[in-house]
Amino acid sequence: MASASLLKTSPVINKTDFIKGQALRQPSVSVSVVRSHPSGLTVRASSYADELIKTAKTVASPGRGILAMDESNATCGKRLDSIGLENTEANRQAYRTLLVSAPGLGNYISGAILFEETLYQSTVDGKKIVDVLLEQNIVPGIKVDKGLVPLAGSNNESWCQGLDGLASRSAAYYQQGARFAKWRTVVSIPNGPSALAVKEAAWGLARYAAISQDNGLVPIVEPEILLDGEHNIDRTFEVAQQVWAEVFFYLAENNVMFEGILLKPSMVTPGAECKERATPEQVADYTLKLLQRRIPPAVPGIMAMEATLNLNAMNQSPNPWHVSFSYARALQNTCLKTWGGRPENVQAAQEALLTRASANSLAQLGKYTGEGESEEAKKGMFVKGYVY
């Protein structure tokens, strides 16, 4: 059985000067001033405003995207089990060390979403994972929601819990070095979606976003429209318009500063079980049309989900946003399988991670061709009823 000692030969990363030092030791309590605008609108001025804008722009930097490594310990255990490793903290630490210490990862990755254990964890060499990320010029982020639960009164739909205590948790995460946050809620097309579920998703996202900004964290706004279903791409487009209209209505109601958020929309695709498939160009066309109709250009970054080819096609067309990626399995699958829990495979596993990160970096620039990509890397990531 492999253990954390697998990674003791991981390379040492050179330090940089990115958001460290005094910036990480600012007070966790922000002061907000609410003033009236002549038009009657309420405008909130937060002491974190400039920092939020800077962080959002850093994450939305050219040729880079987000590595989502915020799987819960249970889900991380399933990944480890797939390569024959026991779900222990030592093995989770070993795998996370492999990811964050890949040499040159910051050339392609601008932000890493962490699970709470990881935010407070050290590498197998005893170095804080947050510090390793900063030395790679990668902004540490944190998953702050408490997971999906059944939504009473709905059509077998879900809502995302975690608002209770979020302000104090966010303040503590900021003190630990996190600078952006993630909150995942979902909308199911086969189950409606009901007006209740859409409103609950939008309101929860808006409250989370406002609380995050008040505590120095850039919120990723993610109403994930699940791929499950037989619906066609036009039905996905219809629902996505409805969801994003509701989301931005409540973001404005909660005085969220649009320049200090990032979005993680699902790309507009047919349902996973739909017989009519869409080309990357069609997906790009529908998704960009959705963004143009619903997303203010003040938003600095769109960290989209789904395939590399779709992302590349989106960046073939002019748009006012930084359209990039926020991937978990799409970046990690080949890396994990290459590693297999064996110390002699660490370097090859890190190279596999860098290959996938580099491919998506090219897609963000609209220059991806798929040349040199393995068939494993090109496989779809859809899992029916996926939870984490």
UniProtKB/TrEMBL annotation:
Membrane spanning residue stretches: none
PROSITE patterns: ALDOLASE_CLASS_I
Keyword Plastid: yes
Entries under SUPFAM superfamilies matching the protein: Aldolase
Keywords: Chloroplast, Glycolysis, Lyase, Plastid, Schiff base
Catalysed reaction, written as an equation: beta-D-fructose 1,6-bisphosphate = D-glyceraldehyde 3-phosphate + dihydroxyacetone phosphate
Assigned EC number: 4.1.2.13
UniProt-listed InterPro entries: Aldolase_I_AS (IPR029768), Aldolase_TIM (IPR013785), FBA_I (IPR000741)
Localization per Swiss-Prot or TrEMBL: Plastid, Chloroplast
A Pfam cross-reference name: Glycolytic
Entry keyword annotation includes Chloroplast: yes
GO BP annotations, alphabetical order: glycolytic process
Pathway: Carbohydrate degradation; glycolysis; D-glyceraldehyde 3-phosphate and glycerone phosphate from D-glucose: step 4/4
GO cellular component: chloroplast
Single Gene Ontology MF annotation: fructose-bisphosphate aldolase activity
PANTHER family: FRUCTOSE-BISPHOSPHATE ALDOLASE
Family: Belongs to the class I fructose-bisphosphate aldolase family.
Name of the protein described by the UniProt record: Fructose-bisphosphate aldolase
Species of origin: Solanum verrucosum
